[in-house]
Each structure stands twice: as structure tokens, then as C-alpha cells.
Amino acid sequence: MKPDLEARTVHDYNAFVGAEDRHALVSVIDYAELPPIRHCRCRFGVWALFLRDDSFEDLGYGAGSYRYEAGTLICVGPGQVGGVPDNGEVFRIRGWALLFSPELIAGTALAARMHEFSYFSYSVNEALQMTAEERGILITLLTELRDELARPADQVQRGILVDYISLILSYCRRFHERQFSARPEVSHDVLARFEKLLTDYCASDALRRDGLPAVSWFAERLFLSAGYLTDVIRRETGGNVRTLMREHLVRLARERLLSGMTVSETAFSLGFEHPQHFTRLFRRVTGQTPTEYLAQAKGSVS
User: Per residue in 124-138, pLDDT tens?
Assistant: First the structure.
């Protein structure tokens, strides 16, 4: 579905909602000050945080939809699409927004840290449900940032703006970590479902035919974003999705080697085109080559 709005810049979004341009690369919006707007599916070319104090059903995002409640923080990054298609209705948004251009942070320490804020890659159905205290902290920082935008620009303002945004994103990271910790049963369930999906895939002919799939393959079938799945696995295991996948392959490899398969047969059965690639992975995980492992296993038996 084609987006109704291409918000390539901060100005594009400001113009759509009727917000004042206070800076070319940053915007802090208090929706209470704006008139009602039409529904819109928007493709973003900027980073954006939306603190929604209203409730709405069927907010589209990616391939899914979501009903969000008051106090939800939604985070989107450049290239992402979300919203509700324009159906002619006019409604009033309640809450706040922060939008900033990649140009603002280019070349700064924050730009190098953006990968730490993995919540930007989450789907909306993994949005943050904020506590009253967290909401208060965020609004305080947004208000201070907006006050800075109202001051005359000078040589140090860009650094101040970037520092404020960095602080806001770090707090949001803390809030997301709190949400993970507060719902351990959800993380346990995600890990269990991932492990079953991995086991079933490796037991099928798909492994031999196609090798291991991308992280996104598992995420799609678990109805999660790749970023969310990665964060859950990291918190639950201390590793990453690829690490779990490699360790599972090595467990299968050990079983097959001990059953009498040759190294080449084992490699091809696990989806490796070249046995040396399998040997390299096996040694990386175990510290031994498959041949060394077999020799040790047979020695211990004898």
C-alpha cells in the first residue's frame, strides 16, 4: 500500500500536522497545541519517537497492526512505514513527538551509538508501555529540548541538541530494559518458541537444501521484528540468534559424526556447500576440528 505522506524531512511532518518549524533538523511536538488532522500512512526519512496519550485500534506498521493504549511510546526509523490510511476522517492526537534528521547527528558520537537503540527496529506491537514516572521523565526532557529550540542558534547549539537527544534515547533504552525485566514470562516464551522453530527447521529437508535461514526468517514466523527477537535472545542467553543457531548445528554435527557419517556427509547434510566451511564453523564453536573431535570421542570410548 502506497503511503499517504513521504516525511523525508522534519519539515514534511511538521507541515502535515500543522507544527511550527523551529529548527530544520529537529522538531518537538506537543499535539495538544495542534489542530485535528486526517489519518495518514507515513513513510519516514527521519528518526521519530511518538508518545501517544490516546488509544487507537488497527494502527498499521509494516505487515501487521496494533491496538495501542494511552502511555505507549512508538519508535520509528528512516525507511519505516506506519499509521492509518487516510479515510477522510479527522481526529485529534494526544501526546508528544520528537523527530530528528540523520543529518543532525552525522559524524557525532550519537550516530555511532544508534545501533544500541534497537527499539527503533521493533514492530509497533512491541512498543513500550510507559509507567507514569517514565512518561514524566520523557516529557520533562522533551520540554527542555523544545525550550532550547526556541533560543537563538549559535555555534554550540547543535551539540546541545544532540546531547539532549542522546539522553532521551538512553532513557528510552532504560525504559525498554525495564519492560523486558518486568515480563520475564514473555521472554521465556519467545525463547522456547524460537528453539522449537529452529529444531523443527533443522529436522526438515530445508536445512540440507537451503542451509540456515536469516534471523528475519525466524522473526517473521514468530510475529516479531528481528530487533526484538535479537534483544530477547540476548537477555535470555547472553548470546545472539546466530550463536544459538551455530551451537544447534554443532550439536547435530556431533550426533551425525558419531553415527558414522563422514565429515563431508555431515557438512552436506547440514546445508554446507563446502566441507571446509563446516570445519571452520565446528572449530570456532568447539575449539576442535571434526576429525579431532572424532578421534577424542573414540579414544574416550576405548
Answer: 556 788 889 999 999
